[in-house]
Amino acid sequence: MRTRKKRMTILLAAAAAVSLLFGMAPSDGSGKASAAGRPVAIASCLIAGTDVVCEIRASAVPASDDGKYYLYADEVYQDGPTGSIVATVETGRSVTASFPLSHNTADSNLSRKFLVAVKSGGQMVQVSDEHYITNPEAIAGLSSPRMNTGIKGILPDVERITSGEVAGMGIRQVIYNMHLDDICSAATVPGAVPFEYNGQTWYFDGAVLSNYDALVKAVNRGGMQFTMVLLNHGTGAYSQDLVHPMARDGVCEGYALNVADDAGTEHLKAIGAFLGQRYSGRLGFGQVDNWIVGNEVNARTSWWYCSSDSLDFNVGIYAKAFRILYNELKSANANYWIYNSIDQEWNRKSNPGSFLAKDYLDRFNYYMIREGNIDWGLSYHPYNSPLYDPYAWNGPEAWVKKGLSTPYITMQNIDILIDYMHQPGFLNPQGEVRSISLAEIGYTSSFGTEAQEASIAYGYLKAASLPDVDSFMLFRMTDDAHEMESYLALGLYDLSGNKKPAYEIYRNLGGPGEAAAKERASEIIGMDIDQMIRENIIWTRSGTGVVSLE
Q1: Alpha helix locations (H) across 331-448?
Q2: C-beta of residue 230 within 8 angstroms of C-beta of residue 239
Q3: Calpha distance 151→166 (Å, rounded)
Q4: How much is the CA Rg of the chain, to the nearest whole Å?
Q5: pLDDT, tens digit, 9 for 90 and up, residues 201-239
């Protein structure tokens, strides 16, 4: 298992600078952003037994009609003191409020947000920011030891898992997509699986689930770790309530999850709880260790569609969906790691409908810190730019730079991202660097198989040299004809099922044949690959072009 690096010294000046960068008021050094304009802060909301205990702190006790704090529990779609009052305590500079967790009842507080209000002039006035429960793992009854055995991963062909080919390559991690709309069902569907949760009965498609069960168990039997990507394709007959109201006019690959009303929110809670229990490794359906919420969610018009082009609005609804799934999943298995997902377009967007990855990451982190820091992980896709550029070790100088202002972060300059995540304002609640998963990356053979060989070796070895990187997931196993129209022949097998030279080099990496793989890559690159990675040597080519596409 990895050991995350700790930042032993956190300077208040640095924390203040990071806070200002994110648009927050400066931190008091605790990692909790101060509430600008609100005199009260919820310092923590933690599960303790069957109760929730919230610590309330005030820089100045606000005036009120009755000298009392009212603690509200809001659903994620509610704003201000509009939910239920769960506790009332005397005002003060430092007070504690507690109330029942009521887990798995109609009044469950597990995935609600909390705020403090006072009565002023007969009206309830919010005096604190919102805060979520940050230790849902405290009630996890189905925790399983993680299967951390190495970072080498792939998006597989299912039939190559069952044949043993994937495990035979020395693959240690497998990633796969699950469309939430595919697994939802109704009581009238034959084979539907009922699930009682929060006072309602929900139904899931038994036939679809059985396919996932078989896949997860086959991966586990091969000694490989499973990462599941949760997507919302928006087409399911029994899941239209999962599509955000402001996403229902779109035609795209992925839709923003509905956190705008009770129907979508309650359904999402049930899905999180159901998947968390089913794939905990304790109920006979297999073990998923990692969950990724969405795919490249900064790509608004492609993968997390919403008609609003406001960064704050889009990140806000994603953060709410993330909180729900995080708390519901972790309440089943404390050892799950749960990731967001952004692409490599750090400071330049190729699609005007997207958000910059850096801006999205900053704003997401802002919400996580402001509303209760949790141990979220970062899923990053450090593709070459353009995607069909065949040279992982020698990118276009216009797109790959050494500083924070670089347009793109690829495997060449991935250390920029790593250093960024080492900032005090980005650390997890334990003061550690968050898990970083390079969950999707691939290199084309459209301009020669040698470039693909060397690029895969360079990418994997660079990732393996970084202690904070927990996975390197190659995309994909077999070429896709549609992708090849854009010069993206990313597979280790061609369309006829023949192994490309890249297959052999990836099989050798991370195993007994690694020295041979390094020698082959060094020969293609024209420099010792170990030296290139050790000394962080970055070659670039002039202009923005790749190769002639004539």
Answers
A1: 357-370, 414-421
A2: no
A3: 14
A4: 24
A5: 999 999 999 999 999 999 999 999 999 999 999 999 999
